[in-house]
Amino acid sequence: MSTLAHAVHDSKTMLRRNLKHALRYPAVSLGPAMMPVMMLLLFVYAFGDSIGAGMGGGVGGGVGGGTGGGRDAYLEYLTPGVIIMGVAAGAMSTSIAVCQDMTEGIINRFRTMNITRSSFMTGHVLGSVITTVVSLVLVVGVALALGFRPDANPLEWLAAAGLMAAIAFAVAWLSAALGLISKTVESASNKPLLIQFLPFLGSAFVPADSMAPGLRWFAENQPFTPMTETLRGLLSGSEIGNNGWISLAWCAGTALVGYVWSRSLFNSTTRH
């Protein structure tokens, strides 16, 4: 068996292992979907009428266009941001899973076996992407049940799914690195909080141009805002401008940093 074929085979084995863990502990694997669902219910039913009325024409179809305020229009605006939040929420479970394997002794057993070194991290990352996508299906299902009615055509749905997978892939590599630098599961659960909090400081809940100047600048220049606007445009069938390319650039850069960082950490940790 060639080196590449061996690596692919071992990565599939590790992926299967992580997916079995996800099925065995659904509260952990689907837990990241609970916060977005709760935020969706809270903001739509508790604040939807007032926020939607305050945003007026900026609701529906993104910033600068729309069909007026109200709860239904705000649901159309909010749902893409909540979906992005669901992707970010997956960072915690990935970080915890990697830290558990590194601190509970299983990695020492893997070191004694003829397993490709890269397969350990690859299995965690791909498993994280799959479980995150499953969680997003739940979030979208709840949004549809509440009355969310996207105008996306099949191609736009496919592009939206690809964008979600790209973001989940990037977040998973960065989260894996955070898990590797954590000494305990508790610290591994705390380190990804910044990733989970960033969507709140973007255009997920209100347009960036409605924020105070300093916060507006940050919201417009952080990675989750163009991602949210891209998804919002795809689901509403409206123009996404440069947001699509900016989002993919953020995904590629984050994935590269996370990959290089996690690989360096893993190699240094398991060298001996």
**Percent of residues in helical segments?**
over 70%
Strand content: under 5%
Q: What oligomeric state best describes the polypeptide chains here?
A: single chain
- Which stretches are poorly predicted, pLDDT < 50 over at least 5 residues? 60-68
The secondary-structure class comes to mainly alpha
Distance between the termini: 26 Å
**Overall mean confidence score, pLDDT:** 85
According to DSSP, the number of beta strands is 0
Sheet having the most strands: none
Number of helices: 13
Radius of gyration: 20 Å
Order of helices and strands: HHHHHHHHHHHHH
Overall morphology? elongated
Q: What does this entry show, briefly?
A:
This protein is mainly α and 272 residues long. Helix content is 75%, strand content 0%. It has 13 helices and no strands.
Please give a handful of descriptors for the protein shown.
mainly alpha; elongated; 13 helices; 272 residues; single chain
Please write out the topology.
Elements: H1 3-24, H2 26-29, H3 31-45, H4 48-55, H5 71-103, H6 106-111, H7 117-146, H8 154-180, H9 185-190, H10 193-197, H11 213-221, H12 224-236, H13 243-269
Helix pairs in contact: 1-7, 3-5, 3-7, 4-5, 5-7, 5-8, 5-12, 7-8, 8-12, 8-13, 12-13
Describe the structure.
- This protein has 272 residues and is an all-alpha fold.
- The chain has 13 helices and no strands.
- The radius of gyration is 20 Å and the shape is elongated.
- Residues 60-68 have low confidence and may be disordered.
